[in-house]
Specification:
- The chain is an alpha+beta fold and 253 residues long.
- The chain has a domain of 155 residues: Clam (outer membrane lipoprotein receptor (LolB), chain A).
- Helix content is 21%, strand content 32%.
- The chain contains four helices and eleven strands; from the N terminus they run ααββββββααβββββ.
- The chain is elongated and about 125 Å long.
Length: 253
C-alpha cells in the first residue's frame, strides 16, 4: 500500500514538473539579459600629418656676368743708369762710323766701331784693337802692341759705355741741345788716375784716384751720341759728326 502511495506521489510531482516546463515554454515572457559594460582601453592616437602642398624649389638665379677686371701690371721705373745703358745699346746697334772733334786739343779722330781709330793730321796715329802704328820724329813708322792711347780710347763709344757701366751713380740731365740738335743728357763719374810729379828730385810721383764728371748727350731723333763733356782734371769736349759716313781703316802695308 505504501509502495503504491510513493509511486502516486512521484508521478504527481513529475506531472507538475512537466506542466511547469510546458507552461514556461509556451506563455512565459523572455527575460533580456543585462549587457556587460565594455571595458575602456586608452589608446594613444597616432597623429598622421597632413601633407602640405609641395612648395616649388626656388629657381636658380644666374648671376649677371661680371666685367673682367683688367690686370694691372706695375712696371718699375728704370733708373737713370739703366736708361743710359739702353741708350748705348741703341746707339751701338745702328752706328758704324763717325768722327770726333776735340776743340781744346785741336784733334780730329775717325772711329770705325768696334775698335779702329785714327788720329788725322800731322801727328797721324792708327790704332786697331791693341796694335798702334805711328810715325816717330824722323818720319819712321813704329808699331806697338798692347799700347794704350788714352786720347784715342776715350773717343770710342764702346769705351765710354764700359766706363759709364762702372759709374757708381748716373744722373738724368734731361733734354738739351748739341749743335742745335735736340738731345737727352746723362751724367756719371769716371775714375781717373791723377799723377803729380815728385816734389823733390828722385822722389816718387804722387798718384791718386779721382772722380771725373762726364756728361753725354744722345740725339732724341736717331739715338746717336752728339757730344761728350769731360770735367776736371782733363776738361775737354768731344763733338760727334759724320755719323755713318763710309770710310775704312786698315793696317798700313
Amino acid at each position: 500500500m505504501n509502495w503504491i502511495k510513493s509511486s502516486l506521489m512521484f508521478g504527481f510531482v513529475g506531472v507538475i514538473a512537466v506542466w511547469t516546463t510546458a507552461c514556461g515554454s509556451a506563455g512565459a515572457v523572455p527575460v533580456t539579459p543585462t549587457a556587460l559594460p565594455t571595458p575602456i582601453v586608452q589608446v594613444t592616437p597616432t597623429l598622421t600629418p597632413i601633407p602640405r602642398s609641395p612648395t616649388p624649389l626656388p629657381t636658380a638665379t644666374v648671376p649677371p656676368s661680371r666685367t673682367a677686371v683688367p690686370t694691372v701690371t706695375f712696371t718699375a721705373t728704370p733708373s737713370p743708369k739703366d736708361m743710359l745703358m739702353a741708350a748705348f745699346v741703341k746707339a751701338l746697334a745702328g752706328l758704324k762710323t763717325y768722327r770726333v772733334e776735340v776743340p781744346e786739343e785741336s784733334r780730329y779722330i775717325a772711329v770705325k766701331l768696334p775698335d779702329a781709330m785714327f788720329q788725322e793730321g800731322e801727328n797721324a796715329i792708327l790704332k786697331i784693337g791693341t796694335t798702334v802704328w805711328a810715325l816717330d820724329s824722323q818720319g819712321r813708322r813704329r808699331v806697338g802692341n798692347g799700347v794704350s792711347v788714352p786720347f784715342l780710347d776715350r773717343a770710342n763709344l764702346t769705351w765710354l759705355r764700359d766706363q759709364y757701366a762702372k759709374s757708381p751713380q748716373v744722373v738724368l740731365l734731361g733734354p738739351g741741345t748739341a749743335e742745335g740738335v735736340p738731345c737727352i743728357g746723362y751724367s756719371g763719374n769716371f775714375t781717373v788716375t791723377l799723377v803729380m810729379p815728385p816734389k823733390t828730385p828722385g822722389g816718387q810721383p804722387d798718384v791718386s784716384p779721382l772722380a771725373q764728371v762726364v756728361k753725354i748727350w744722345f740725339a732724341t731723333a736717331d739715338g746717336f751720341p752728339r757730344r761728350v763733356q769731360m770735367g776736371p782734371p782733363t776738361s775737354i769736349t768731344m763733338n760727334f759728326f759724320d755719323l755713318n759716313e763710309p770710310f775704312d781703316l786698315k793696317p798700313p802695308q
